[in-house]
Write a structure and sequence with these properties.
28% strand, alpha/beta, single chain, 6 helices
Length: 390
Amino acid sequence: MNFILFDGAYREALLPFTYTRPVADIRIGITTIREKWEYLLRNTTTTVTEEYLSEKWPMVEAEQNIFICGSVLPTEKLVDKVKALQVGEAIYADKELLAFCAKENEEPDLEVYKTIEFTEELIIVKHTWDIFKFNEKAIKADFKIVTQDGQSQKLSQTNTIIGEHPIYIENGASVECTIFNTSKGPIYIGKNATIMEGSIIRGPFALCESSTVKMGAKIYEGTTVGPHSKVGGEIGNSVIFGYSNKGHDGYLGNSVLGEWCNLGADTNTSNLKNNYAEVRLWDYETEGFARTGEQFCGLMMGDHSKSGINTMFNTGTVVGVSANIFGGGFPRNFIPSFSWGGSASMVTYKTNKAFEVASKVMNRRNIEFSKQDQTIMEKVFELSLKWRKD
């Protein structure tokens, strides 16, 4: 059977992260949603997404295809039901479409499909804040899957462990003089990752391949540091997709950073309003600020965005793709893609300059800023034009 992940009803609500990737390529827990499905399906997947993303993430159809909502985190029971789908059948969970089976080139009329109800608990990523909100659960679920067929390295005796949950260390990782508290959940340390001396880490926590925790870092439960990233300072319940740096002191809490982001030294995010009120976040669909139902919510930063030293982000700030923020004071809590400036003023970050920086940053990791990447960024520039004032 051929498996295809589709963006589903929540793509707009997951901007700015879905400006530059399909929904299924959001990281939550240890792996991306796609990686979770592919591991449990024991199969590869392709994607139905926006046209401008389709060259990089093409869809491949076969005679029969199972389409799966990219917002849904798989469980073994759900995967069993998905693999058993026949043409003309669809799986729902409380009216949420999870998956359906259709023939090649068919326009499915889901209203006449046979409905299969799924009643087990699921995590469905519907909003940007769901990424950090459900991250603890996702780390725990991923930990069982990612570690079940492997053997952890032994932890050096220079480290201190509190708690009963396991710590799993992949080959090539270096971990010295760190305090681990696993009372609330497990800790995963990826291949060739480094945790420098003096760090204090509480699980559930995931440090992915070739990433670094710098000296004296303080990291609280529910945090994921994606591959090829560097973190330092204080971090709580946050998700960093990968290839991003928060390498210095400063606080990041209840936040999500995309790829190729960099937070300058002493960048701080507020994750709690002074009056303890519910946090509102910019909503790209309504072009207004939406209720989150959350008391704690920090920074949502899209791919390739940066902050200068001593930048302060107010509670519930949304930064688009390829923005460059710097200067004193609090910038406004919605910063459109390709913005340049801070609290005093914002101008458009010209694409030729943005692409030059992106190419340099990616080349440092031996990754090409490709023509596909440039085309995607040009489309994001166009889509975000209406929110920039100059």
